[in-house]
Amino acid sequence: MRIFDSHAHYDDPRFESEFEGGRDRALSFVFEQGVERIVNIGANLESSRASIALAGRYGKIYAAVGIHPNDCGKTGTLGQEMAELEELARAPRVVAIGETGMDFHYDRPPKEVQKQWFCAQMELARSLGLPVVVHDREAHGICMQAVRDYPGVRGVFHSFSGSTEMAKELIRLGWMISFSGVVTFRNARRVAEAAESVPIECMMVETDCPYLAPHPLRGTLNHSGNLVYTIGALAALKGLSPEETAQITYHNACAFYGIEE
Ligand SMILES: [Zn+2]
Fold first, then answer.
1. Which of 49, 115, 162, 165 has the greatest number of CB atoms lying within 10 Å of its CB?
2. Ligand 1: distance of its center to the CA of 41 in Å?
3. For residues 3 and 106, what is the distance between their CA atoms, to the nearest angstrom?
4. How far is the centre of ligand 1, averaged over its atoms, from the C-alpha of 8 (Å)?
5. What is the set of domains in the chain, with CATH numbers?
């Protein structure tokens, strides 16, 4: 089984401190499990730089650069950070802008600020012709509005948590839906229902590791090898074999990020 992890954070210090043997060992371990491609996602300038560095070291890793909604304005002004982000986005092996979006779980920074930074990153993606990785937590309506406001931009909603109707609307607009370990959670029936409705051609799989370990490993340090659980759950929902599900989502992610299979 060849697996594509479309959204991971291997620059997170927990891989160095909590995985036996550290980050390099974690990565060689997941590569041994059939994980052939990983996009490491930036959440601020520092982790965007770290993502580019990881992509430079490992032929199976690519990078996305962006400012997470909860990190907006933490280390610089919008103008300063967008100028630097644009420079980072032009580095080799950068395949997307993200993660950006909105997170109203914590009203930090205020909604208006989050929106400004999201729109600036949508504009950057449009000018560079890169896809966008959207983080949408409890902000479905306003994230969908941004998608409609930038018809020239395509992207993915990562760790999708919206409704079936929202998934259908995104697909109609040419966007992709990425499912994480949440689809295996017993208390996330709505996400499973949305997954049931999404055509497999519009689907990617992700860990969001070190977060969101799937059932039955919930709460542990997540890694890309655990995608077998997520793939298994999606396969059951779609009436496909795990191998087919892995293969099709692998192909989808390569096409989405513009990566050679
Ligand atoms: Zn993430």
1. 162
2. 6
3. 33
4. 6
5. 3-257 (3.20.20.140)
